[in-house]
Amino acid sequence: MQWEEEPDAGWVATLAGVSERRARRALAEAQAERRLFHRIAAAHRAGGRPSYIEIDAPFELYAITRLRRPRHVLEVGVSSGVSSAYLLQALERNSYGTLHSIDLPQFAGRPGRSRRPDTPSWVLPEGQSSGWAVPMSLRGRWDLRLGNKNVVIPILADDLPRVDLMVYDVPHSDRDAAREFRAIDRRFSPKGVAIADHGPGGGRCTALQGWAVRRSSSAVRCGELGLYGFRAA
Question: What distances in angstroms separate CA 58 from CA 3, 80, 87, 175, one per listed residue?
């Protein structure tokens, strides 16, 4: 697991609707969660995967959650659970809110077989399950649902009274993402925040920007990452 050296306070301030000073304080709090960082890193090492795919901005997710105080957070894509853990830690600090996560686990292969060089880095090590690196102490606010996002997102959109924060971190086509964002939009809160990760160096997807425009906003980039988000106006 990689330590985030320079989290983007301006991006957090824009999405949370606060001053950069408040954003920097929330990010400093995230960076102070050293115990959580080391527990996740240790879980990765124990699973034989010291270098593991993860969202590039866990501190920003933590800070936005602390500042926005969402009641319902929707996360699409879990893998080992780095973003899940930071979202859950922030909800725990808030003493408020639930994380609803969706994941369709993929596995590296059968025991005794070496991992192929072309295996995607987000697949789960043998014997592990989605979110395996999330500390048990944080799981009380976690609603983890396993299944295809195309099926589970509409179900959650029907079940939840609203979605205050969405983190979309899965490989996707613009067509699929646009359909899924429309389903979420039915429950998306006024001033809700939506974030999508397009991988290192990835561009802003048409589906996210289209959703932002319909909500009188625009998707903005986090630093030099392939991470974009907007706050509904």
Answer: 10, 13, 8, 27
